[in-house]
Amino acid sequence: MRFVFKTRYEQDLRLWRHNGDLIGYGIFLAALLALPIFAGVYYVGEANLWLIYSIAAMGLMIAVGFTGMASLGHSAFLGIGAYTHAYLLQNGVPFLVSLPLGGLLAGAIGVAVGLPTLRMHGIYLAIATLAVALITQEVMSKWSSVTGGFDGLPVAAPDFLSIQPEAMYQGEWFSVGGLHVGWVELWSPVSLYYICIAVLVLAALIARNLLRSPTGRAFVAIRDSEISAQSMGIHLAYYKTTAFGISAFVTGLAGGLFAHQISHLAPDAFNIFISIELLLICVVGGIGTIQGAVLGAAFLIMLRSFIPIMRDEVTAGAGGVEFLAGLVRFVNSPGLEAAIFGALLVLFIIFEPMGLYGRWLKVKTYFDLFPLYKKSTFARQKSYVKTERLR
Amino acid sequence: MTFFKADKLAIHFGGVKAVDGVDFEIEEGEIFTIIGPNGAGKTTIFNLISRIYEPTEGKLIFNDEDITNTAPHLIAGRGIARTFQNIELFEQATVLQNLLIGRHAHRSGTLLANIFFLPSTRRAELAHREEVEKVIEFLDLARYRDQRIANLPYGVRKVVELGRALCTEPKLLLLDEPSSGLNVEETSDMAFWIKDIRDLLGISVLMVEHDMSLVNRVSDRVLALNYGRVLTLGSPSEVQSNEEVIRAYLGG
Lengths: 391, 252
What we know:
Helix content of chain A: 55-70%
Distance between the termini of chain A: 45 Å
Oligomer: heterodimer
Number of helices of chain B: 10
Number of domains of chain A: 1
Structural class of chain B: alpha/beta
Strand content of chain A: under 5%
Number of domains of chain B: 2
Strand order of the largest sheet of chain B: 6-7-8-3-9-10
Radius of gyration of chain B: 19 Å
Radius of gyration of chain A: 22 Å
Largest interface: A-B, 39 and 49 residues
Shape of chain A: globular
Shape of chain B: globular
Order of helices and strands of chain A: HHHHHHEEEHHHHEHHHHH
Order of helices and strands of chain B: EEEHEEHEHHHHEHEHEEHH
Strand content of chain B: 15-25%
Largest sheet of chain B: 6 strands, mixed
CATH architecture of chain A: Orthogonal Bundle
């Protein structure tokens, strides 16, 4: 059993709760840094996707988890970050400038979108932000002078941190039937991997710093009770817009990295499905927690590579069998992923509302309190009737 | 000087005159109670003072200033704090975090200082924490400090909400039914605290209350309302023996 003995107020302002936590995070970071030594390039690529989704979801978590604003528009912010970064990079802006600029533009558009839409709540807000996602995608496909339209936009490799410095500009178009279809990159996914880790740590720090300062507390207050937040002196419109802006900024940063990951941008890469995936990450990982974004993203990436494997297995195994033809048709039906993600979202909300991170906390508490653990510690209580919300 | 004054205060929801021309004045250092049957407009007056509702008519004066058009989030900074009838705490946060949100009106520093948690933010946080600890000590909440509100019993939540209001360092404290849902012992604790808040902290109190024993113990003056109009104003015993008040409560 662990008892954290507090003797100074500073202890509550630390980034970690006790030394055990610090060791845990240290081991996690060390394992992350060491991964490319042991894993092949394919797995590093998958890990990149995981880290990028973690960062994007951490951005969404600030809006959904901390402030309680459901958003289906974060695919747009991811896209804005990606296109801005790629466009600036193409025009000779250095990587370290263009990546934050992409995030800042996404954040500015987040604020602009937030000003009118954040008067809405719940499902209405989700629908308004959904419209933002669709409009942004439309702009991406129509504004061809900047975005390249449906032909897409190649993403230049950044000219530093590359494993082979002289190979930096050796990327080239490869074409099929006279059409440019791709950009071969010669910089290694490993360099992107380390950039992703740096940005992830930065995003986690931003989120954690917010939570231990008055701004983040105001976000949480708005999530739990707008009316009393207001009577405590919290300016609702200002803090909601700020939360949405920071959220879009972090997701925009992830967008810049995502551009390198997919190396060739097309409007289709930022469809509404990305928004739903990000929301799924937040719910599955554990709504309102920073760690949840990382756990949820790991879950999603594994699930995404697991589904095609299972599909192939089932098709191969049951392909010849007459009475299993229906099953084969089912696993090969389009939209199966979306259905599975949707079902998972519902199941997690009903059965594990605190998500994977909540489950981890429960396991930890079990061992902390052993043998005195009681199930009701985490039981959800019926909450008392709230004052009419005066919305 | 006028400490607090409601001048011909009125709000109409369509044809319903929830508050209809109410006048009263609170002196500094007073414990002022509003009583009245259900639907008399007591909580509506609170919502008018915290500017959640827009008055149809009338004026609110606080510290010689007209606060009738002040934005709702600026009321706490002016020195008016409130609690809610049905408890409006931030349930997924700990007691400590709830109390720290009470310090919001006194925060300083920019958004960027918060994002990077600059030394200035750290110093400000520690100073806020000292203030919060004073309230924790005053209300004897130390053992609940790190517990989430969702895990606390109703009686403790009521005290936490009182504490959160105290953390804003108000000059006028609005208490909406401080004893509702409390048992006899908790109610008498509440009575002591209300007196101490006035005597030790020098905060004037405006409260809505149904428990007449609590009203008798702490109030200096009582205002009786019915259907949004003032029935009578006076000492607790005067108001209780007033015929109109008895009729309003018992019918007839």
